[in-house]
């Protein structure tokens, strides 16, 4: 049975160290997804770990991404989730602003309870990084121990 492990991290360095240790323990990149509202964080994580570059919805690359990031920083338009890993298909481009429940809806669509999804979306909105790791049940405790070792942020749910 497959289990979804979730951790919230304050920095891309913590995420990179966690990914590297998970992979040393046998995890595969295709089991790991990272969600952020800061595209630069995911670019750095991809460079540090070899993860695939992120997806961020329309304008994810080049000048359009730069303009979209500037507009969202100025609060002219909502921020959009940037996602690396298999979660990109469902989560990339979700609006993460305080007036949008888009990311919450998408998280619930992958099986996360609504109250939990609301808490995780709030953390992404605050600039933290959400890591999701799929695991077989027998490997879940070991992977979660690695995730918790790298300054995972407690989330009140």
Quick rundown:
By secondary structure, the protein is α+β, with helices and mostly antiparallel strands. It contains seven helices and five strands; from the N terminus they run E-H-E-H-H-E-H-H-H-E-H-E. The protein has one domain.
Can you characterise this structure?
- This protein has 157 residues and is α+β, with helices and mostly antiparallel strands.
- The protein has one domain.
- The chain contains 7 helices and 5 strands; from the N terminus they run βαβααβαααβαβ.
- The protein has a 5-stranded antiparallel β-sheet, with helices on both faces.
- Helix 1 runs parallel beside helix 2 and helix 5 packs across helix 6.
- The longest helix is centred in the N-terminal third of the chain and has 13 residues.
- The radius of gyration is 15 Å and the shape is globular.
- About 4% of the residues have low confidence.
Indicate the topology.
Layout: E1 2-9, H1 12-24, E2 32-36, H2 39-49, H3 62-73, E3 82-84, H4 88-91, H5 102-109, H6 114-125, E4 129-136, H7 137-149, E5 152-153
Antiparallel strand pairs: 1-4, 1-5, 2-3, 2-4
Helix pairs in contact: 1-2, 1-7, 5-6
InterPro entries: GSP17M-like_dom
Protein name: General stress protein
Organism: Paenibacillus lacisoli
Global structural class: alpha+beta
Q: Tell me the major beta sheet.
A: 5 strands, antiparallel
Q: What are the low-pLDDT stretches, counting only 5+ consecutive residues below 50?
A: 58-64
Which series of helices and strands comes N to C?
A: EHEHHEHHHEHE
- Strands side by side in the biggest sheet: 3-2-4-1-5
What percent of residues adopt helix (DSSP H or I)? 40-55%
Radius of gyration: 15 Å
Query: How far is it from the N-terminal to the C-terminal residue, by CA?
Result: 24 Å
How many structural domains does the protein architecture include? 1
Integer average pLDDT: 84
- Principal-axes geometry comes out as globular
Number of helices: 7
- Please report the total strand number as a whole number: 5
**Strand portion:** 15-25%
Organism: Paenibacillus lacisoli
Protein name: General stress protein
Domain General stress protein 17M-like: 5-66
Pfam families: YflT
């Amino acid at each position: 049975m497959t289990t979804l492990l979730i951790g919230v991290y304050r920095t891309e360095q913590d995420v990179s160290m966690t990914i590297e240790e998970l992979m040393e323990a046998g995890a595969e990149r295709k089991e790991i997804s990272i969600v952020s509202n800061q595209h630069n964080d995911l670019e750095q994580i991809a460079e540090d770990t070899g993860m695939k570059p992120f997806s961020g919805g329309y304008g994810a690359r080049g000048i359009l991404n730069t303009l979209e990031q500037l507009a969202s920083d100025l609060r002219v338009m909502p921020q959009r989730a940037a996602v690396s890993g298999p979660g990109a298909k469902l989560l990339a481009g979700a609006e993460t602003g305080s007036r949008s429940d888009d990311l919450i809806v998408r998280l619930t669509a992958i099986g996360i309870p609504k109250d939990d999804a609301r808490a995780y979306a709030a953390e992404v909105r605050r600039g933290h990084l959400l890591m999701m790791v799929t695991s077989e049940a027998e490997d879940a405790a070991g992977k979660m121990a690695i995730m918790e070792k790298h300054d995972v942020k407690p989330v009140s749910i």
